[in-house]
Amino acid sequence: SGALLWVRQAPGSGAVTTRAMCPPQIWGDDRVDLRIEYDEVTTTAVIERRRRVDGELLWSKRLATDAIEVNWCQLAVSANQLYFSFSDGQIPGHLLALDADGNLRWQQALISYRPIQMLSAADGDVITAEPDFRVSGAPQHVMTRWRAADSAQLWQFALTARLLDLGAGGTGFALAWVADSAVSQQARYQRRSATDGTVLSEAHSDVL
């Protein structure tokens, strides 16, 4: 019907400025939000888990950062774990995992500021896609699968990609990206195994 079910006011007053950073994630019967709070001396990332039915706060996690301003973030959820990363202008950025109660499970350094996309695998691991600024020449993105239990890297590979999109695809995952060739740009599509990252099928076409 479009009727308003509930409204919750984010805390913050005086010199504190609060700003939502990325779309909420649905986590079972709950939702997860990430916002950034600024004041004159500190910047804090705030992650909250709320019941969807009434907006009741279940837990809140606050993480201080040295950044002057936070620009972008990524959230992904599995059955029992929340993954997130936000851009604070520092390289390397970090990928963090929280359990269902908001406790920090692990934190790992990334290649770049933050992933451009994240995807939860069927067994709770997370797959990230991030730009790699360590190489000169053609733009490159790195794909990594991180184990949920301990953040071990199960596989990693690089793609020469200017733009990239990551999506779920049954027991595997799908990739679409734009790659530069000597004479044109090509749109490329792959379906890969989530277990080891190997290519299951592939297609491409010239776009310019």
- Give me the Rg, rounded: 19 Å
Structural class: mainly beta
**Largest beta sheet, briefly?**
5 strands, antiparallel
Please give the share of residues in helix. under 10%
Silhouette: globular
What is the end-to-end distance?
Answer: 46 Å
User: Beta-sheet strand percentage?
Assistant: over 45%
Q: On the 0-100 scale, what is the average pLDDT?
A: 83
Number of strands: 17
What letter string, H or E per element, gives the SSE order? Answer: EEEEEEEEEEEEEEEEE
Q: How many individual helices?
A: 0
Low-confidence stretches: none
Question: Mind explaining what this structure looks like?
Answer:
This protein has about 210 residues and is mostly beta strands. The chain is built from no helices and 17 strands. It has strands at about 15-20, 25, 30-40, 45-50, 55-65, 75, 80-85, 95-100, 105-110, 115-120, 125-130, 140-145, 155-160, 165-170, 170-180, 185-195, 200-205. A hairpin with a 4-residue loop joins strand 8 and strand 9 (about 105-110).
